[in-house]
Amino acid sequence: MDFQLKQRGRASMHFLSDLAVATARFKPRIDAEIAAQGLDDATLADDLDERLKQVDQALASSPSAAALATLTEFSATNHGRVAAAAFDEVRSDLEPRLQALMTGPTQIEALPSAERPDYADAAWIHRTTGGWDGHEYQGFIHGELIHREYVARTYPGDIFAQRRQILSVLSRRDYARIFEIGTSSGHYTLQIAQEFPQAEIWGCDTSQRMLEQAQRAANERGLHWRLFKGSGEATGLPAESFDLVTSYIVLHEIPVAATQAQLAEAYRLLRPGGELLFTDVTRYSALDKRGVRWAEYNAVHGGEPFWREAASVDLGAAARAAGFAEVRSEGFRGAVYPWFVYGKKPA
Ligand SMILES: C[S@@+](CC[C@H](N)C(=O)[O-])C[C@H]1O[C@@H](n2cnc3c(N)ncnc32)[C@H](O)[C@@H]1O
């Protein structure tokens, strides 16, 4: 949907994203300070908590580390509030259009087993004010404002193209029915729809507000997706009714036990010969000790309570344990991000 923010809202969003880019420049300086204190792969502790303490002590009097912490905290606590304020400035123009897009071929249904997982309310993921359902238009605010005007401007590479490119991992192009877990505002779903125009697309998410934005994205394009409010761990949908079960950057936001449950549910939902593709963040096993410390720093400051356990789990072993064959768990195209796990349900 085309729209324009008011100058104040747009500038506030871009200030925060520019601030994130600018503060990233502290990191090489801090790395040099860590190295100057004699901390490297040989001397950094194996235990991650111990290592975090070691580095914090080494940086105790570092102005760069103090500045990074303050500015990171500022962005983390303010980005959701700033995005909601930017939305409020244009709300009266946008609201009728957002409402109109709720009508169309795509509607939201409840999953047969619609239990909300207890961890869903454990924290505001990303520290976005109110969490996934924290505003009547949170799907639009997160999907269109925070994701496009803040996250996309600070992440390296094209985060929308990455959602499309990862689909090249799949061996088939003839899926009849695809199930997506964690549809959110539909960014990955749109790429799936473009890549597999013949497929029936079903998706679920625990957040009503995020799904509403996916609903609008589909209706705007005249697409008929079946969207379900509920958890991907136990959908209650009929077994062996999908050819592909997939998700994009969901796993680091849920506990490992939930990932294992989603793998088991994917296996149940797939027809024999069906495929699994879950994509997530860099595995800690693919990073050196200093890299893991930075990932952990970003996770802690960025409001990601499950990142550590999620990034530490061996997704390949978990997929095999769920019954999948031909399993691959690796960084896409030799990089460490994004990381995917692929598997096939034996025919
Ligand atoms: C990072 S977003 C997903 C992004 C989306 N796939 C994309 O590519 O833009 C994570 C989403 O997972 C949803 N979620 C969390 N736990 C879930 C669960 N157990 N089942 C389904 N969705 C879940 C959240 O509500 C949120 O919308």
Q: Can you walk through the features of this model?
A:
- The chain has 347 residues and is an alpha/beta fold.
- It folds into 2 domains: 7-105, no CATH class; 118-125 and 152-344, Rossmann fold (3-Layer(aba) Sandwich).
- The protein has helices at residues 7-24, 26-36, 48-58, 63-100, 138-154, 159-165, 187-195, 208-220, 256-269, 289-301, 307-312, 315-321; strands at residues 107-110, 177-181, 200-205, 225-229, 242-248, 270-280, 325-331, 339-344.
- An 8-stranded mixed beta sheet has the order 1-4-3-2-5-6-8-7, with helices on both faces.
- Helix 1 (7-24) runs antiparallel to helix 4, helix 4 crosses helix 5 (138-154) and helix 6 packs across helix 7 (187-195).
- It is globular.
Summarize the structure.
Helices cover 47% and strands 15% of the residues. With 347 residues, it is α/β, with parallel strands linked by helices.
